[in-house]
Amino acid sequence: MVEYPVKIIALGGASDIGGSCFYLRLGETGIIFDCGIHPRKKGKESIPDLESLENEPIDFVFISHAHQDHIGALPYLIKKFPHIKIFSTPQTKELASLVLHNSSKILKKELGTKSELKPYELEEVDLLVQSITEYYYNEPFILNSIKNFDEEITVTFYDAGHVLGSVSILIGWKGKNIFYSGDVNNSPQSLMNGSKIPKMNTDLSFIETTYGSQNNDEAQSWDETSKLFAKDINQVINRGGSLLIPVFSLGKFQEILLLIHNLMESGLVGLTNIYTHGLGKSLSKIYDSNRYLVNRNYKDVKLKDIPQIRISEIRNLSRLLSNPGIILASSGMMIKNTVSNEIAQFFLSNEKFAIFSVGYMDPETQGYRVMNAAKGDKIALNGNNPVKVLCTLKKFSFASHSSRKEIVSLIKKVNPKNLILIHGEEQSIKNIGSDVLEKYRHIKVYAPSLGDSIILTI
Questions:
Q1: Do 164 and 192 touch, CB atoms closer than 8 A?
Q2: Quick one: pLDDT at residue 216?
Q3: What angle, rounded to 10 degrees, do the helices at 222-238 and 252-265 form?
Q4: Considering the entire predicted model, what is its pTM?
């Protein structure tokens, strides 16, 4: 069989989680998978190194889903390479409009006027979103290279089960198969019903490793975790306390909102106020309008119909001392200057209150420090005076990513000759690499660092 050289450049989200962006050159066709902003970095360091692509062909960008760390730098990419064509599912296109509008506002606050990186305007976002070409799951489409029209690729989106509209991507080129997992979840959540990726043979696969550092015996099902979650919520509410749950506005907000609603409806959690805010509520409307178009649980439930009170109506957080409730607030990692961070500062010193984490937290974020503190520790958030930790802190794994065992199962399912491990901390990547080399010795495993360029023959 004829073999061909391909080139890969890790522009972001390689040996790290955040700012995902990978370049793939197939002959004279240039492809970019995702183009995100890194949530912990600022200025030019937060976006992919687009200058490194100036001498490469660039034709298409495929968006796996609408989280900011996968799409937040798209306007910078389009400004530098205005001819590039963008592709996603219809749901990701809808969500991207709201996420990028919100990102524009955040960047204007963060960057100011002196930063070398300038925030993008709302009008730029509108034009970008209008230019996105949408395709549904399991519908192959053919694209021709700009430089060489005779060179074509076939692209298919598969349901990745991560958030609404998320995809894993299969590319066919000259008889070769290339697979990009994006963020993938094999198991059902409250809403999303798990990935739908067929068995295949691939010549090259990019696979995410977010939960690769997890021990296989630590993984609990969503239902098992829900029962423990319900028990601990009741303990907090019954003692007159309130509960803060930091969530990402897209995905985790909708999943946990429905979960709490279902626990209350079934009597497993006592009725109490649910406080929400902002972008999460707006994104929920898109979940509602697409509920019959995707592989979703509880299709008859509209998230907007779940009773919610705006957090802004709590003019003084002390009110929660006499009116207990559950607060869903972003960001999910309690990043500085976010609603969850501000509320956490009030909650930490109150022994009746609690903060529950429900997903991944980057070890370098304030949220990670909070959730790994012990009672009696002192924590200073945002440079403020240290606060003594008196509230209850508990961690629950309501995973929107595949477990370590599921990642290895996915690798077996797509059966790559060459495997690129991405989107994970160093230990996660080492664990998955070790698992694969032990079980599947025919697979060549690569773990690029940020900025690495790899040339392979497939």
A1: yes
A2: 64
A3: 70
A4: 0.96
